Amino acid sequence: MRSRSASLHSNNNPIQVIYAGGTFGSYGKPLAPLPTAEFLPVMQSLLAERENTANQPALSWLDNTLIKDSSQLNARDFVHFYTLLLEAYAAGYRQFVLITGTDTLSYLGAFLAEAFAGTDLCLIVTGSMSPLLDSEVLESYSVDANSDAWDNLNDALRLAGAGESGVKISFGGESWAAQTVQKIHSHDFMAFTGHTRAAHPANSYLKTLPDTRKQHWLDDQQAVLEAIQTRAEHSSIHALYCLPNDAEVLRKQIQALLSQPPCGIILLGFGAGNIPYSPALAEALQNAYDCGHMVVCASQCPFGGVSDSYAAGSWQYDYQVIAGGRLTIPAIYARLVWLLLRYDTPARRRQRWTHTVSKTQTAIRKHR
User: Fold this and answer.
1) How far apart are CA 357 and CA 222, in angstroms?
2) Which of 21, 113, 266, 350 is geometrically suited to a Cys-Cys bond with 178, CB 3.0 to 4.6 A?
3) Mean pLDDT over all residues of the chain?
4) Three-state secondary-structure class, residue 281
5) Category of 282 on φ-ψ map: left (φ > 0), alpha (ψ -120 to 50) or beta
6) Domains of the chain: residue spans and CATH
């Protein structure tokens, strides 16, 4: 008799499709999102037609009550999707496709990758730059042949059907580990890019997860789920964009956050993470750490990340700033949010970041 873990990798276990809104479901003149009750039956009918073709995995619809423009999503909404997936995963499903808007698609994907690290869950996140349905045809609903939506959906379903563990973003005929992805174009079909040199959390996913280990993981997550949901009501991440200003401008921005509960702060530095220096700014960074905030330096450049090669950037790490490495801004945001929600003290959050970074560096060295 096959174990339950083995059966979860079978195509007999349907792919769970989640629709969460965005351009994908917009329709009409002018374009506007279709009401859920109207769009979902159309989607279900289209997917049912696809399911009837040869060698296609079975599909099922995972009920989702949160459908809105992705630019409106926040940490509470991210936790909603985490909870939805967690419940389905606990029920024995492991292959999922999530359709969402492109504005925060990379943020949501990276967050869910962090949240399900250490499991065998297979999640493909996708969306589109053009609506699925043809608004030139108003007497009936039909797929727009010039849209990227149907191809993106089919690619995502194909990847989910393969069942490889991990959270990936599929878009424009390509796919990448979720935490490497960023949006690089505001309206082109090739709107996203990523890379294959992914480390944690991508390298933490397991091909198979024995029942006992899976249950232990689920017990751990469910034990803190209520706390995660509560913290999501108050968590916040702040991005401070460095400009050619006096260091006093940045100091004032950091100082204004010191009275808040522990939060995440992303410093968007120049080049490899260089930021202006002053003794007062250095003191403010140390004070932020003392107040329990996690300050992470990222690069304004889309590729390459940060390093401590230049004195103009390395000084900040003497004042408890965390180097963001090669992580994208969405990935840094996602990790900060997850640590704020999942762990109850600044010390545990920082220790967990350090642990994941050491795993990332090891993986990159092995890749080289």
Assistant:
1) 25
2) 113
3) 90
4) helix
5) alpha
6) 4-228 (3.40.50.1170), 236-367 (3.40.50.40)
